[in-house]
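Page 47, continued from p. 46.
Same chain as before, 490 aa.
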Amino acid sequence: MNILLVSPQTPDTFWSFSHIMRMVGSRAAFPPLGLLTVAAMLPREWNLRLMDLNVRKLSDADIGWADAVFISAMIVHEASAREVIARSNARGRPVVAGGPLFTTGAGRFPEVACCVLGEAEDIMPALVADLSCGRLKPRYQAADRPDVTRTPLPRWDLINVRDYATMSVQFSRGCPFDCEFCDITAVYGHVPRVKTPAQMIAELEAVRATGWSSGIFVVDDNFIGNKARAKALLRAMIDWRCRTGARSNFTTEASMNLVDDPELLDLMVRAGFKNVFIGIESPQEESLKECRKVQNTRRDLVASVRTIHNAGIQVMAGFIVGFDSDKAGIFEQQRRFIQEAGVVTAMVGMLSALPGTRLFTRLTNEGRMIARSTGNNLDAFLNFIPTLDPATLTEGYRRLVKDLYTPREYYRRILTFLKEYRPSGPRTAPHLADVRAFFRSLWVMGVAEPGRWEFWKFLCRSWLLHRRAFSEAVELAIRGYHFRVVAARL
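Result:
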């Protein structure tokens, strides 16, 4: 059979990094890891093509070649996904759809021939058999969550890795915490399921075999959800680096209780982790208690961020405004906290109630739901009735994000970070692509765009005061250009 796997186009969001792709010499930020993994579950004798619409356009000839079209999408991809579905249906090609968009909203897509709800590993044999016989069912859903130690190596041969700025791998699914607004536990459960160290090293070797030696994103929603298993993997990664001379560094997502385990933090540094995304959400204790972000309560959050910076890992963080506990002063509280802590990459969003979350259920029961979430973390859009005046909330949010990403505030935040940051762990020379990106940035941010004077002042101070971390300073400056553009459009 001929199977076309389609990754929809990502709109202009905080994490799309679309405005710096030309600067860094890539077409898209991340490869479609879910589709590459699903592809590995299909029969090897089938003919597969993967089309990432963030890299190239989908043609009618591509659809016409296929016997079936597989699509995987998040909520933010809905517009692009609907277009792909409509075009496939018009050509008489059945669509098999999976991912969060369809897992939580399959009923909104009656035009889709087949929806896969949840994880695919355990249902794929039945789906393949039915597709081969032309008897696709409208729904496939496994009775239990799959054992990820049986998940196959992604089909990296289906993409050109040079199209992407960062590669991706996955170690675990699930999170032990119970944040009210988060849909991770609804989809993947509270008990983290993890791959074996040998399995993960094989995946990292498969990525390295493509010639890749740059950054890798470990896409877990909480890499340290099972600390003991995470430590075992980190020790294996340290050994792998020593044996192979691997040069990649790593980024992942974790919870703030990382700072409570110095051994774990040290192992992450030694394994080559350079960035960690943490959901801080709010500097206000009442809001943290409201959303059950218990891992962030009863601690000095600024000091916690600095502990991680001191260890040699940069904290990227998520923040939310719009909790019932928030008052009109929350915007200035958030701004002061982010600047003081030196959280350079600060993703600030308005609270949104996602399907399947306890927040969604509570607000529905309270009669406060008014619309579906767009899934865009930079959308000044309310899908429920807040306790704070809606106009105050949306305007305060827009002003906060715009202020955070003005050149002056952003560069000040990088310098605050660099004062606390202690470069540690494996050090590698910049890649040629990094050097090219640096020189392109000199033109874009130092000549062509507003904020050029602040940019040159920042570069000079970084070189004079933080020379050991100058490459990190440049990388953050480039990343900030994307944030500045998307913030200005709010």
